[in-house]
Amino acid sequence: MRINKFVIGGVLILGAVVFLIWTATAASAEYFLTIDELNAKGPEMVDENLRVSGAVIGDSIQYDPQSLTLSFEVAHVPADNLAIETEGGLAEVLHQAVLDPSRARMKVVYVGPKPDLLRNEAQAIMTGHLGADGIFYADELLLKCPTRYEEAVPEQAG
Fold this sequence. Notes:
- There is one protein chain.
- By secondary structure, the protein is an alpha/beta fold.
- Strands 2-3-4-6-5 form a five-stranded mixed barrel.
- It has helices at about 1-30, 35-40, 80-85, 90-100, 145-155; strands spanning about 30-35, 50-65, 70-75, 105-110, 125-130, 135-145.
- The protein is elongated and about 75 Å long.
- The protein has one domain: CATH 2.40.50.140.
- The chain contains five helices and six strands, in the order αβαββααβββα.
């Protein structure tokens, strides 16, 4: 009789642990998509946790220092490293993405201090969610400026 109580108790504890792990994983899961992929999925991605990457379009940057609201547009860049290298590297891919008006674009809104690296042709990696209005609301914003690093490499190597 005692063995049955221990077995039942153990199964209940194991079940509770599995349930907690599953809910924690589901709550923190996020999709990493390109702008083209996000546009293709459309409304089903509204309010999902997302990470999106794109090339910053410099002319679209607007910042309100009173409300700390930053808005800008990003253009689609491929996520495949082989494709990026084939097209001439990240700096060239970002440059072409900004120049090509036929590439998919997305408006981004971020509330916080304006990052120093926010400039034309920087790569923006944003974490947040897509609103029903089609605007991406970023909670986190990471910027990479590949031309800045490419210029520094010869100095470091020499």
